[in-house]
Write the structure tokens for this entry.
Amino acid sequence: MTGSIIAAAIGYLLGSIPWGLLLTRAAGLGDIRQVGSGNIGATNVLRTGSKGLAALTLALDLAKGVAAVLIGAMWGPAPALAAALAVVIGHIFPVWLGFRGGKGVATALGVLLALAWPVALAAAAVWLAVAALSRLASLAALVGAVAAAALAAAFLDPARAAVIAGIALLVILRHRDNIRRLVAGTESRISFRKG
């Protein structure tokens, strides 16, 4: 129990590092929360016109998920799962930003890579396919989250499947405004032409 608490605390603190905000400020691009959707994740960083910063944000947010699970695993399987859930919660609800963070997609993918890399690769492939066809990052994230939960339920042990399903639900709930815009047909599309 102590190991799980420590792992969850570390995971939360790792998750709450707002890489998108820190990188765009360091690059002199101001506050990413005042750009596009106001989100601190890689998709919104891409809207600044910098593919490089967007890619770095994606990599660092993903790395948070991987690192949290690996650190938690030092105490055992249960702490690894506690850290997995906590790192995504930290990214979505970071204490430093008044609990208003990102959507959790990249960090969730990092968690998946550490917990079950075949599921992660399959979910990433789904994301890429939907994003390429629709140019809607939010739709790709939603479909990818559902795919990850379904694959985990089909192929993984109940403990990992339950945590992955919980993370998928968090990601979906965090996209509730995007879902409304998707239904209304007003959701912004991503562009790969800038920068």
